[in-house]
Amino acid sequence: MNTNVPGINITIGGLLARTALIVLVILWTLPTFGLFVSSLRDKDQLIVSGWWSALSTSQESEQGRTATSDVEVERDGTYVIAGNIFGENTSKSVDTYGGGFLPDTDDVEYAENEQVGIRDYQAGETVDLGDGVTFTLNTDGSYEWVSPIPLEEGRGKRFFVITTIPPTFSLQNYREVLDSEGFGQAFINTFTVTIPATIIPIAVAAFAAYAFSWMEFPGRQLLFVIVIGLLVVPLQMSLIPLLRLYNSIGEFFGVAAKSYPGIWLAHTGFGLPLAIYLLRNYIGGLPREIIESAKIDGASHFDIFVRLILPLSIPALASFAIFQFLWVWNDLLVALVFLGKTDDQIVMTSKLRELLGSRGANWEILTSSAFISILVPLLVFFSLQRYFVRGLLAGSVKGG
Which in 28, 52, 241, 348 has the greatest CB count within 10 A? Predict the structure, then answer.
């Protein structure tokens, strides 16, 4: 069915396809956009609200506590404890406070539900607590506890506070990652792993694909079936046996098992089955007349491969190069198994894992580190994208 508009001829099916494509693009890019917005927000904002509310001011109820008597100083005949309830690099500000010196609980929900006075005092207002004791909490989180007698030893005095978090954006998360010790070296180490681990399997797979497509030798089909069967072998099952093999070889030759050549060979082995499959389908689909003409002219298999097959196979080679580069660049498991954690070997994914801490204390840098890590893969993809779809489609139409 066609929708006939002067100068426009649109089918209903085409309109639905375009609409579905737009919806899929939005669904695909929306999480990435949200990740980018989150990477520009600080930890305080990320805790209390999602990225979709990044432009609105939010409030948070929390518990505060003064410092202990260890920091108490004497001033004009009184004893003063001063400090700040906020840490460094925060955008929070105090709105109201109160509710202290009630039943000993640190539960903020209790303070809100029981209405213990969490909104009694405005920021900057001095509270008279009796017996000459006063307490002041300012907008920036600084406070002063003033008493005519020394504070008893023990924990500081507890109170509840409502903080306001304005919609602020900064590059602090990016600076924290980029300024971390050893990150630049880890970035270089990742290139050291990824570039050879991408080139080596492409080179080997191209030769193998040509052999499976245009060379006659016994057991060709059986070998190809075995290669395809390796596609279903989980990578995790082969890590420990392969590492044991590396250790045995390393002990025999007196070399370290965890080294760059080891991880290059590991990534090559894990990437070869798919590479051979894609390239064999593509190379096998090239016109037979070209190959036969070259043979009649006396060209050897090596000449045919170098002068004809490689130039014609650039789309397929670029397609697999994108896949392999992305896998190796984002790899963590194989790098942890086959490389050490020294400064000259640790890769970027492993370094970012260390920056998060064993308990994920610095989880707010996940968003910024994600964008830092995808910059190079994006450059690789966009530089080779014109070959990507062409190479995949050509390889999937016909198998030799």
Answer: 348
**For the chain, what is the domain count?**
3
Percentages helix, strand, coil for the chain, rounded to the nearest 5? 55, 15, 30
Assigned domain for 158 exists: yes
Phi first, then psi, for residue 183 (nearest 5°) are -70, -40
On whether both 151 and 86 belong to a single domain, the answer is yes
Instruction: Decide if 248 is inside a domain.
Output: yes
More confident residue, 106 or 237: 237
Range of the domain at 255: 175-397
Instruction: Give the pair of three-digit tokens for residue 191.
Output: 């290139």
Task: Report the alpha-carbon distance of residue 243 to residue 260 in Å, rounded.
Answer: 13
CA–CA gap between residue 48 and residue 320 (Å, rounded): 42
* Inside any domain, residue 317: yes
Element holding 192 (H helix, E strand): helix 183-214
* Residues 202-233 pLDDT 10s: 999 999 999 998 888 888 889 999 988 888 88
